[in-house]
Amino acid sequence: MSKISLSRRSGSVLAAALAVISFGVAPAAGGAERDGVPNAARADGPPRADGPARADGPPQAEFHIVSPGPGASLSGYVGPESMDPLHGYVPRGYSPRDFHRRVIRHAGIIRGIREDGKLVRAYCFDLEHPTRGHMPYRYGTWGEARTRNLGYIARTIHDYYPNTAEPAGMSERAKAAAVQAAIWFFSNRYVLDQDHPLFPTTSRIVSRVIKEGPLEEPASPSLRVSGPEHVRANSLAGPYSVEGTSDKASVDVTGGEMYRDAAGTQPIRSGAPLERGASFYLRSAHPGKVRVRIRARVVHHIGQAAVYVREAGYPGMPREGQKIILAREDCVDVVIEKLVVIEEELPPPPPVEHHPSLEVHKWVHPGTYGHAGQRLHFKIKVTNTGDVALNNVRVEDHMRGLSEVRCPRTTLAAGESMVCSATYRVTRRDLRHHSVKNCAAAEGRAFEEGTHVRSGWDCAQAYGHVPVTG
Asked: Which superkingdom heads the taxonomic lineage of this protein's source (predicted)?
C-alpha cells in the first residue's frame, strides 16, 4: 500500500523565502516587547537565524521554522510538579515560593515555511527545548509529542486567536501572547506574574477552556491506494481503491489503461478525478511496470502536533527541539505512486480432453417362470461412467415380444445413473427352451463436443421349470 509523500519543489523557492524572512529576526533589547522566535531554554533573547538559509533539510521534513509571528514578551514562573493545571489558574496574590522564575522574550505565533513556499502558523507547547530559525519539522501525532493536556491545548487554539477574534479588544500581538501563555500553563505549568498585563486574560482563557473540556486529537491526513501489485499482461486487474481523508483525487496511469468496471467496458481517462473510495481496474498489454500516480489535497487540522527532525551532521542544530502545534489549518498537495508489475501473459491452457463413457447392468424379476403368459420384468441400470454430461441417452434392446423400454430421462450428468424397465410375456416356445435371455446396450452424446458414446452389451436370463404336481 502506498503512503503520502510530499512532492518537493526546487530548493531555490525555500532558500529565497528563508533568506528574506529569517533575516528579519533580531534580538530584542532591554527586555522590551519585541517579536522573536521563542527560545524557552534561554531568557536572554530570541534565537538567532545565523547561517545560510536551509533548503536541503532531511527528506522527512515538511516545513522549517523561519520567523516569529505576532506575540509579546512574558515574565512569570514555572510551577512545581505537584501543580495540576486542570484545577485552574493560580489566583492573584499567589506565592511563588516553590516556583521557578522564567522570563520569555517572545510568546506567540511561530511561522514555518513549506518547500512550496506556503507559510505554516503554529504555537509552542514545550518550554524545555529551543526553537530557532531553519529548524526542520514534520507533522506527527500526540503520542509522539508526549505532552500532558494536549486536548485542552487544542481547545485553546480552536476557540481563540488566530481562529477566532477572542480574546476580544486586544491587539494581535497581545492575543497571541495570551493564548501562548495559556498553552504553556497546560503543558508546563507556566504562570504569569500577577502584575503582568496579560494575567487576567490568560486566567479567563484557562477557566473557560477547562469548563468546555478537551478536544480529541484531529485525524491525521492520509492518502493511499490499495490493490494487486503483480498482474498478468492482458489481464484486467483490480479492484484498486483510493482511500484517505481527501474527498477527491486525480489518478494518472502510465503504461496501462484504467477502467471503472471489472469487465473492462468503461474506460477512465488518465488524470480523471475519482471520489474517495472509488474503485478502478488496470490492464496492460505488455510485461513491465504500470505507474499509478495519485494527486490530492489533504488538510492538516488545527491542533495537529509537529515534531523536530534533527539534521545529523549540520552544526549548530540542537539535539532536541520544541514541540509545536498547528494554529491554522495547513492544506497540502500530495502525490503518491504505486508501481504495478506486469508479468508475462500465461500461455493458454491445454484443451480439456473429455472421456465420455456408458455402462449397462441388466437383471430380470422373477428369475424363473412356469407357464405361458407369465410376465418377466427386465431392469436396465444405465450409468454415465465418463467425465462429461450426456444427452440423448437411450437403451437399445431388440428382443422380440419385449415392451417398449422406458427410462425416466434422456440426460445423465457425469457419475449419474438411472434405471430403465421393460416387460416380456413368456411363450410356449420359452417353456420348451426352458430359458429366456435378453441383452441390451445404451448410447448417448456428450453435451459439449457432441461425441457419440455407446456402452457394451449386458444380458439377463430367466429360467423355466416344470411345476410339481401331486
From this structure: Bacteria
Query: In the chain, how long is the greatest CA-to-CA distance?
Result: 149
**How far is CA 49 from its chain centroid?**
41
Closest CA to 340 of 294, 283, 296, 295: 283
- Residue 109 DSSP SS3: strand
Distance CA 198, CA 179 (A): 10
Whether 326 contacts 285, CB under 8 Å:
no
Pair 63, 120: CB distance under 8 Å? yes
- Out of 85-94, 120-129, 440-449, the most confident range is 85-94
- Running DSSP on this structure, what letter comes out for residue 74? E
If you count them, how many residues does the chain have? 470
pTM attached to this predicted model: 0.59
Which range (80-89, 101-110, 236-245) has the least confidence?
236-245
Return the ∠ at Cα 251 (arms to 249 and 252), rounded to 5°.
150
When pLDDT is averaged across residues 97-122 and rounded to a whole number, the result is 92
Check if the beta carbon of residue 307 is closer than 8 Å to that of residue 140: yes
Q: Cα(273)–Cα(150) distance, rounded to whole angstroms?
A: 37
Distance CA 351, CA 74 (A): 86
Q: Do residues 279 and 227 lie in contact, with contact meaning Cβ atoms separated by under 8 Å?
A: no
Whether residue 224 has pLDDT greater than 80: yes
- 358-464: what fold? Immunoglobulin-like (2.60.40)
Indicate whether 92 pLDDT > 60: yes
User: Please, what sign has the CA dihedral across residues 89, 92, 98, 102?
Assistant: positive
pLDDT bracket for residue 233 (50, 70, 90): confident
What's the sign of the alpha-carbon dihedral 389, 392, 398, 404?
Answer: positive
Q: What pLDDT was estimated at residue 26?
A: 28
Domain boundaries, the chain: 7-220+302-331, 223-300, 358-464
